[in-house]
Amino acid sequence: MDALKLMRYLIFSILFLLTTSLNYAQAKTDYRCGVRLIFDSDGSGSVANYVLSLQVKNTTGRAINGVSVIYKDQENNVIGNTFLNCSINAQDVKPGSYGECIRTLQRVDGAYINSFGVEKWTEIVNTQLKSLNSIQYCQTLGFSY
Description:
This protein is an alpha+beta fold. The protein has helices at residues 2-27, 111-116, 118-132; strands at residues 30-32, 34-42, 45-57, 66-72, 78-85, 98-108, 137-144. The strands form 2 sheets. A 4-stranded antiparallel sheet has the order 1-7-4-5, with no helix packed on it. The chain has a 3-stranded antiparallel sheet with strand order 2-3-6.
């Protein structure tokens, strides 16, 4: 009897460790993500929006409306963290489906043109784009339902 209990304990312990290791490895997976420069306009003129986006697959049993991420560069150095909105056009990412999650990380609006001129505004936009283009990977921390 003691040998049987010991064997059950060992099997349970091994399964627990394997399951925990697999879940940990899955949680540490980095997914490709990136920043897009999207131009717009407002009352003060041209606007440059730097939008971080990540494509997610919903493997949970509930609809996802957001995801918390850490974003990293090519060498996996942490650059920052944010919460991405997955409810595009009021549609959550349904269980078993894919969807895009986005967040505007920075916005350079027309007030800069009025203050510094078009040439300086363009320089600011390009400098920020170069900096934010270093974002290559996103590590998912958790979901919002």
